[in-house]
Fold:
Amino acid sequence: MAKRVAKLQKDLCVACGTCVKVCPKNAISIYKGKYAQVDESKCIGCSLCAKECPASIITIKTKEVVA
Ligand code: SF4
Ligand code: SF4
Structure:
């Protein structure tokens, strides 16, 4: 089974929090005020965060999940 999830380049993240605000699933948090991280178990791959990220560092990837 495949699942779509958000991936981000954390070394380029400016921790602005935009992705945290727009995510409908509360799947993103800012780790220690430094960079965003995605909880893949909550992410539904809707791509809202990718559209809104001012640094354009979020992409949606397909991930194989063992059912
Ligand atoms: S793709 Fe959607 S659900 Fe996943 S982290 Fe981004 S906004 Fe949240
Ligand atoms: S919107 Fe982009 S730059 Fe801002 S915290 Fe999220 S991933 Fe980082």
The longest strand covers residues 2-8. The radius of gyration is 11 Å. Helices lie at 18-22, 48-52.
